[in-house]
Each structure stands twice: as C-alpha cells, then as structure tokens.
Amino acid sequence: MKCCTICKKEFDEAEERSEYAEAGEWLAGEVWQDGGKLCPLCLENRATLVMMYCHEYNS
Question: Is the pTM of this model over 0.85?
C-alpha cells in the first residue's frame, strides 16, 4: 500500500484503474513527475481538470 501525496489516503498500486486514472497517470509521469504517488481518485480528478483547463494537452 502507498500513501497518496495529495489526499493522503492509502491505495493499492495494483488496483484496476479507469481511463481517466490512466490519463492522470500519464500526466503524473510526463508533466508533474509524481507518477506512482497518487491514488486513482486524485489521478482521475487531475485528468478531468486538465481536460477542462489545459487545452494544450487535449490534442
């Protein structure tokens, strides 16, 4: 189990993830360099916010 650096909840890295969480994981690794440190919910939230506000990543 790991602890999410944003919400501080414990999460299992092996847990199945949604498409939004997968997109958030890509952003975590490529943009913010915090891959593997965020829970699936925070990854989903990040991906949603990026789609809404960071249009440079929506191509």
Answer: yes
By the 10 Å C-beta count (0-12 exposed, 13-18 middle, 19+ buried), 24 is classed as: buried
Cα–Cα dist 48/10, whole Å: 21
CA distances from 17 to 23, 53, 59 (A): 10, 23, 22
Q: Which DSSP string do the residues of 1-58 spell out, in sequence order?
A: -EE-TTT--EE-TTS---HHHHHHHHHHHHTSS-TTSS-HHHHHHHHHHHHHH-GGG-
